[in-house]
Amino acid sequence: MRWSWRWLGGGLLVAALAVPFGLGYLAGARTQVQEQVPAPGPQLTAEQATRVRAVALAHPTVQAVLAERSPEGYAISIGPVTGPTGELVGGYLAVDFAEPQTLRGEWLLAVDWRVRWPPTTERHTYTAYNVDLVVVWVDLASGQVVQVEPTGPYTTVAREEDPSELQEPLRSRAIEIALKEPWLAAVLAGSSYRIESVSRSRHRTARSSGRSCG
């Protein structure tokens, strides 16, 4: 679910900075929720869907979010999550807000979903703005939550808290190395520019048989 492109000066994407370190962060988690379309594939049984709902709603972060909001202000949907080879591996619960929300919490992010299941996870505390959905993944085999993420096409996170951002001192080092690349130096020569983002590499693309979930 989980994703923004930043610009250098006259339209050059700062993603170029990611080349030396392989730091191109796939920011699709925040937009792909709305890019997926339903497709045939494995589906949850009624029993599995009930289990996914119970496990997801019992997660502390989800409970904290919902405790502060009226049930009339959101809708809940449940669907399947497929693994790297297309098999049914989990289920998702999506909390779809009627209005964009500002949410602060400890979020659980699935890092390498595309290449392994269950995925490696990271915990990050941050405030997310313009959140349309909170999406929770549940691993069917273990019954454990493997992702809780606030997302949406316009969701943003302050740079100093954004888990996708490379922080100091690595940020400065990445910029230094990138700006030494001859082709980039030639492009920027004589131009006025500002570096707004340096992202770290993570596989964060989600897929499900129905609505995207992360």
From TrEMBL:
Q: Which domain of life is it from?
A: Bacteria
Q: What is this protein called?
A: Uncharacterized protein
Species: Thermorudis sp
